[in-house]
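# nightly structure sweep
# worker-07 picked up a monomer target from the shared queue
# config: single-sequence mode, recycle default, output format = structure tokens
# input follows
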Amino acid sequence: MNRWTLEELCPDFSEWPGRWMGLPEDKSYGEGLLDAMRPFVNHLLASGLTKRVIRRHLDNLWLLGGEIIREVNRHEEHGTPPKEKLWKSVDSEGGPMCRHLASEAGQNSFDCTCRKLHGFFKARESASEKTISAGGGHARNI
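# output follows
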């Protein structure tokens, strides 16, 4: 059972796409990013982490979404599905450089969240592949 709800820790979560928006098409793209982030956020809420740690991860996800929207605009990548872009933006070393972080400690915290998100995606992908393989189908990357 979650000790806190997303609404308690981050009442403006659903407003992030509008706040990230630079171009009109960014809002729907941002909504896709939120949809892709939501399972990870629910995982954080259920993980038993302290309120402060969850809040820090949420703050870093806010920054990550903004960096992704910026990159999508810069490279005209609105055709790339938001979930795919989110997946490609994080890896086992962290995430993109965040222009809003003025310290190494801030970037390290941001990278920690990105690594955690990457690990969550990998675990879900692995579980999905096992389910597909167990069902007699061919495993594939999702």
